[in-house]
Specification:
With 167 residues, this protein is α+β, with helices and mostly antiparallel strands. Helices cover 18% and strands 35% of the residues. The chain is built from two helices and eleven strands, in the order βββαββββββββα.
């Protein structure tokens, strides 16, 4: 989960997946993917995948820690979220097969005090899921991505005083 600061605002970098990928077509997610046998840790996997998908060099990331593991509803994957702070602006290079576009969403959107989070029905590939969902700039952020963001928001709301009066 790449975090950055643009001006005085903290933001979360999300990706919109292409329709070409095997799983989670068109969904909003974080850069990431499967653990390779050569990966030494989940952090190493996250850094390698971020470089492959968005061109983010690992030595440009300040690792902040890990969040609780999360199970996906649609594909039954276990996600091991790694949070890192990245420089911005940055010259991202998108992997055109995997990433359709980047979304820089204000962290404020996901904080509980924003009042934007709710449970709703989301249709995906012919099935309807009941999921926490956030709406930002025409995008629906739901499923494991929304639950990971909720976990981060809970931590930030309880422990960190963020700009704009949140926390």
């Amino acid at each position: 989960m790449p975090l950055l600061k643009e001006g005085s605002d903290y933001k979360v970098l999300l990706t919109k997946r292409t329709a070409k990928v095997h799983a989670h077509k068109g969904q909003i997610s974080f850069p990431g993917g499967a653990v390779d046998p050569t990966d030494s840790s989940f952090e190493h996997t996250a850094l390698r995948e971020a470089q492959e998908e968005i061109g983010l060099l690992s030595d440009h990331v300040t690792l902040l820690g890990r969040l609780d593991d999360m199970l996906t509803m649609a594909s039954n994957f276990i996600i091991h979220p790694v949070v890192g702070f990245i420089p911005y602006p940055y010259e991202f290079r998108l992997h055109s097969f995997e990433v359709q576009k980047l979304i820089l969403a204000p962290l404020q959107v996901f904080l509980r005090s924003s009042g934007q989070n709710n449970l709703e029905s989301v249709e995906f590939e012919g099935r309807v899921y009941s999921s926490l969902a956030y709406h930002y700039n025409g995008h629906v952020i739901w499923g494991a991505t929304a639950r990971i963001l909720e976990n981060l928001a809970r931590i930030l709301d309880e422990k960190i005083d963020l700009p704009g009066g949140a926390g």
